[in-house]
Amino acid sequence: MYIVNSKEMKNIDELTISKGLQESILMEQAAFSVKEIVEDLNPKKILVMAGTGNNGGDGLAVARLLKNDGYDVQVYIIGNEENASYGFVNQKDICKEYQVDFIDEIKDLNNFDVLVDGIIGVGLAGEIKGELLDIIDHVNSCNCKVVSIDIPTGISSDTGKIMKKAIKADITVTFGYLKIGHLLYPGRSYSGEIKLSQMSFYKGYEKNLKRFLLTEEKIRDILPKRPKDSHKYNFGSIAVIAGSKEYSGAPILSALGAQLSGAGMVYLITPSYTPILEHEPSVIYTDFNKNYFEKNDLIKIKGKIEKSDVILIGPGIGQNSNDFIKEILEKYSHKKIVIDADAIGVIKKVKTNKNMLITPHAGEFQKLLKKEIESIEDIENYSLEKNINVLYKSTTSLITDGDNSYFNVFGNDALSKGGTGDLVSGVIASYIAQGCTVIDSTLIATYLVYKTGYDLGIENTNFTVTPLQIAKNLNRELIKLRGD
Ligand SMILES: NC(=O)C1=CN([C@@H]2O[C@H](COP(=O)(O)OP(=O)(O)OC[C@H]3O[C@@H](n4cnc5c(N)ncnc54)[C@H](OP(=O)(O)O)[C@@H]3O)[C@@H](O)[C@H]2O)[C@@H](O)CC1
Ligand SMILES: Nc1ncnc2c1ncn2[C@@H]1O[C@H](COP(=O)(O)OP(=O)(O)O)[C@@H](O)[C@H]1O
Ligand SMILES: [K+]
């Protein structure tokens, strides 16, 4: 499923109109879908709040459709009508013919059961200003159901940020394509339930789109088959290089992630003892009885690394092993490498390539970027400049190779526990070992871990789900996907 920003949406709109489909037809389609959703709420009294752009035009068309079906509906216009769009003016004229009721002031919004927010859509420019600031406060403090047209007023469709103030919708009805702002917090929570309406947009533009929503369907397409006539080396081997005296649990979660999701051989190499074999005796385990890896340890693990198809380096490795990590990244840059946690910072010092994946959470990424992350483009541009794949881990995670990006929205707070990331990196390495591309492996792994965490949270509670529990239940999602 495609995801667009405001510029792409405008291009699609213009291209469709240039093919001869009139704007008023698109507006009628948009309004009709909003009207049906408002009707489902069984309202007695409806207020449509309309801005003076095309989002307002949609709002006016919704009011007219509802009025025509006998609903008690009123319209309140916000903004300067001198600058109004043609779509707005045209709809206002039609509303007058249909005797739609316009009001000049709003007293108590609680007199209405449903408010339709047709104030500003993808045309939001800069921060909200003027009388709208107070109106948004008023809307957010009332008890009525709020249905936003296209995107809640005040949410940037490009970043999901609140542009000073934003309407909190119960339902957002959007047209043709999801916008970035629906998927990134806080826009994701301000949008409420998102309904996507089908539109007659010209699909020829889709070849230019490069952002996608990760779906179960996509995972079904890319999940590897397991040949019956096979042996362990068909499913790849992984060197998990992880852990330190401080963090002896992280390597366990990474190795379990790798071993419990289908890899053929998992070598776990840690500086300090960790009881992985008590959890899973099939892991091939080595430790060096020391606190941290040192540069000259590489010689001792060379054999295992060279036998491996994939290297996972970083979980729990601490800050004292940077020279050791750097040497591995340089020497084995021809191998697929998942670079997680404390190893991520080391990429600043090495030449990177598309065999590599970094898996930063927001804090780790900010350190790499040396500034706040403003938008999805910051992550995509970093990926392009560094020529490296990125899994940006957040409440909505982004998986990108710089050219194409996927949004994963399956996670929730059940995952907000130390160790989830270690598990994720182990599962990613597993699917790379099994022959998937780095990006596909990241899609599969984040889907499996997030969805399992989500489901366990529903069956138990989000308070109690742990990364170990998720690791042990990865089979459930795989059973559903495979249908066996
Ligand atoms: N795309 C499509 O194919 C289709 C699009 N459709 C619909 O069109 C919508 C896009 O319409 P759009 O381009 O006219 O912009 P829109 O969202 O109404 O915003 C402009 C208005 O907002 C105002 N305004 C802006 N910033 C502001 C601020 N900071 N603070 C205060 N005010 C601010 C601005 O005021 P001005 O700056 O001009 O005074 C102007 O009045 C889209 O979301 C969808 O609903 C559907 O009909 C189906 C087909
Ligand atoms: N509230 C949330 N909603 C969705 N995903 C979440 C949430 N909290 C955490 N996650 C996911 O859980 C993982 C946590 O990773 P990370 O912070 O690296 O953990 P650790 O380093 O402790 O192993 C990430 O993949 C992140 O996207
Ligand atoms: K809106």
TrEMBL record:
<dbReference type="InterPro" id="IPR000631">
    <property type="entry name" value="CARKD"/>
</dbReference>
<feature type="binding site">
    <location>
        <position position="117"/>
    </location>
    <ligand>
        <name>K(+)</name>
    </ligand>
</feature>
<dbReference type="GO" id="GO:0046496">
    <property type="term" value="P:nicotinamide nucleotide metabolic process"/>
</dbReference>
<keyword id="KW-0067">ATP-binding</keyword>
<dbReference type="Pfam" id="PF03853">
    <property type="entry name" value="YjeF_N"/>
</dbReference>
<feature type="binding site">
    <location>
        <begin position="54"/>
        <end position="58"/>
    </location>
    <ligand>
        <name>(6S)-NADPHX</name>
    </ligand>
</feature>
<keyword id="KW-0479">Metal-binding</keyword>
<comment type="similarity">
    <text>Belongs to the NnrD/CARKD family.</text>
</comment>
<feature type="binding site">
    <location>
        <position position="250"/>
    </location>
    <ligand>
        <name>(6S)-NADPHX</name>
    </ligand>
</feature>
<comment type="function">
    <text>Catalyzes the dehydration of the S-form of NAD(P)HX at the expense of ADP, which is converted to AMP. Together with NAD(P)HX epimerase, which catalyzes the epimerization of the S- and R-forms, the enzyme allows the repair of both epimers of NAD(P)HX, a damaged form of NAD(P)H that is a result of enzymatic or heat-dependent hydration.</text>
</comment>
<dbReference type="GO" id="GO:0052856">
    <property type="term" value="F:NAD(P)HX epimerase activity"/>
</dbReference>
<comment type="subunit">
    <text>Homotetramer.</text>
</comment>
<dbReference type="InterPro" id="IPR036652">
    <property type="entry name" value="YjeF_N_dom_sf"/>
</dbReference>
<feature type="binding site">
    <location>
        <position position="361"/>
    </location>
    <ligand>
        <name>(6S)-NADPHX</name>
    </ligand>
</feature>
<feature type="domain" description="YjeF N-terminal">
    <location>
        <begin position="9"/>
        <end position="207"/>
    </location>
</feature>
<keyword id="KW-0630">Potassium</keyword>
<feature type="binding site">
    <location>
        <position position="150"/>
    </location>
    <ligand>
        <name>(6S)-NADPHX</name>
    </ligand>
</feature>
<dbReference type="GO" id="GO:0110051">
    <property type="term" value="P:metabolite repair"/>
</dbReference>
<feature type="binding site">
    <location>
        <begin position="393"/>
        <end position="397"/>
    </location>
    <ligand>
        <name>AMP</name>
    </ligand>
</feature>
<dbReference type="InterPro" id="IPR029056">
    <property type="entry name" value="Ribokinase-like"/>
</dbReference>
<feature type="binding site">
    <location>
        <position position="153"/>
    </location>
    <ligand>
        <name>K(+)</name>
    </ligand>
</feature>
<feature type="binding site">
    <location>
        <position position="422"/>
    </location>
    <ligand>
        <name>(6S)-NADPHX</name>
    </ligand>
</feature>
<comment type="function">
    <text>Bifunctional enzyme that catalyzes the epimerization of the S- and R-forms of NAD(P)HX and the dehydration of the S-form of NAD(P)HX at the expense of ADP, which is converted to AMP. This allows the repair of both epimers of NAD(P)HX, a damaged form of NAD(P)H that is a result of enzymatic or heat-dependent hydration.</text>
</comment>
<feature type="binding site">
    <location>
        <position position="55"/>
    </location>
    <ligand>
        <name>K(+)</name>
    </ligand>
</feature>
<keyword id="KW-0547">Nucleotide-binding</keyword>
<keyword id="KW-0521">NADP</keyword>
<keyword id="KW-0456">Lyase</keyword>
<keyword id="KW-0413">Isomerase</keyword>
<dbReference type="GO" id="GO:0046872">
    <property type="term" value="F:metal ion binding"/>
</dbReference>
<keyword id="KW-0511">Multifunctional enzyme</keyword>
<feature type="binding site">
    <location>
        <position position="421"/>
    </location>
    <ligand>
        <name>AMP</name>
    </ligand>
</feature>
<dbReference type="GO" id="GO:0052855">
    <property type="term" value="F:ADP-dependent NAD(P)H-hydrate dehydratase activity"/>
</dbReference>
<feature type="binding site">
    <location>
        <begin position="121"/>
        <end position="127"/>
    </location>
    <ligand>
        <name>(6S)-NADPHX</name>
    </ligand>
</feature>
<protein>
    <recommendedName>
        <fullName>Bifunctional NAD(P)H-hydrate repair enzyme</fullName>
        <ecNumber>4.2.1.136</ecNumber>
        <ecNumber>5.1.99.6</ecNumber>
    </recommendedName>
</protein>
<dbReference type="Pfam" id="PF01256">
    <property type="entry name" value="Carb_kinase"/>
</dbReference>
<dbReference type="InterPro" id="IPR030677">
    <property type="entry name" value="Nnr"/>
</dbReference>
<dbReference type="GO" id="GO:0005524">
    <property type="term" value="F:ATP binding"/>
</dbReference>
<feature type="domain" description="YjeF C-terminal">
    <location>
        <begin position="215"/>
        <end position="481"/>
    </location>
</feature>
<comment type="similarity">
    <text>Belongs to the NnrE/AIBP family.</text>
</comment>
<keyword id="KW-0520">NAD</keyword>
<dbReference type="InterPro" id="IPR004443">
    <property type="entry name" value="YjeF_N_dom"/>
</dbReference>
<feature type="binding site">
    <location>
        <position position="316"/>
    </location>
    <ligand>
        <name>(6S)-NADPHX</name>
    </ligand>
</feature>
